[in-house]
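Deviation from plan, reported transparently: zinc ion complex.
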Amino acid sequence: MVPESPVVPKATVILADGRELFYFGQSAQWAAGFPDLRPPDRVEALSVIRYDQLRGEWVIIARHRQDRTYLPPADHCPFDPSAPGRLTEIPAPHYEVAVFENRFPSVAGIGDDSADGTDPRPTGPADLHLTRPGTGRCEVVCFSEDHSGSFADLTPAQAAVVMAAWTDRSAALAARAGVEQVYCFENRGREIGVTLTHPHGQIYAYPFVTPRTARMLAMAGQYHSETGRNLFDDVVEAELSDPVRVVLAGEHWVGFVPYAAHWPYEVHLYPRRRVPDLQALTTAERDEFCVMYLDLLRRFDRLFGIPAPYISAWHQAPVRAGREQFALHLELFTIRRGPDKLKYLAGSESGMGAFTSDIAPEAAAAALRGERTT
Ligand SMILES: [Zn+2]
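Because the crystal trials were delayed, the predicted structure below was used instead.
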């Protein structure tokens, strides 16, 4: 199957401080006609990336982010459209979906394409302090101009515009020098640590393969070498053959609570056809995703009758490593385990990386299917 290009219009503008902004949707070209009238005030990104030799992980150290905007009053939201006397990050008076470079990025700038993407190994005491520039890119994705809305409030047609934006940006960022992995995600809710409540997500283009992805690729690689099979395919097939943890099953996508869920309520949404990244999806797959994802978000909000604080994470194959084994999927989880209870990452999880969940994955799946009677 050859993926068709999404036919969502896009237009680009350059903000006063030189950052790029992209409008997506039918009004994109019109919106791009409004210039940024603010004085240029660029925040200098000062990130470095250090290697933790004991964990085998890169850590981004971004000290300029300490001063970023923190829970501004609603009438100072920088993600609203601009209005006379109130200039925001988005110059147009209306927009559908807007994506722009984060003013306070964790990583920024063009990287080095000569690296081969593999992590360093210390060969002696002289290499223990490895550091590199914090290159890459961080973008903000505003899902809607409606300040008080949420992703779950979007129509499938609006969600399709977000999907087009994720896909377009993922492809563009993957093509940048030195980028090894592109990650689209949403943090929702103050309980998660969101500093701006306007419905928005983020995209990180990392100059390394993230620890989660590296671990999944190692497990899939080992499974493949031992069985000749694909681990992601077999995990999805196992869930479908005994659907006790399946929450949603469509023609193109299936959503289930994983067998060893880490979080109180957690769903992994996979396309039935294994693809490495968002670009590889067909139009039919994209369209069904939008309907199923909105359904899933609304199920999370219904669990306790209050908006669920959640993290929604797109797992895409790295730009270079492991593309033939990896399966694109979305992982959605809430930290809410009861109407007035949150799951915190305390001693076992934060100190040792050993998770304890208080809710059986099968019970979580039943609740998300709407079967709970209590
Ligand atoms: Zn807002």
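Residues 77, 79-80, 147, 198 surround zinc ion (CB under 6 Å). We consider this an acceptable substitute for the interim report.
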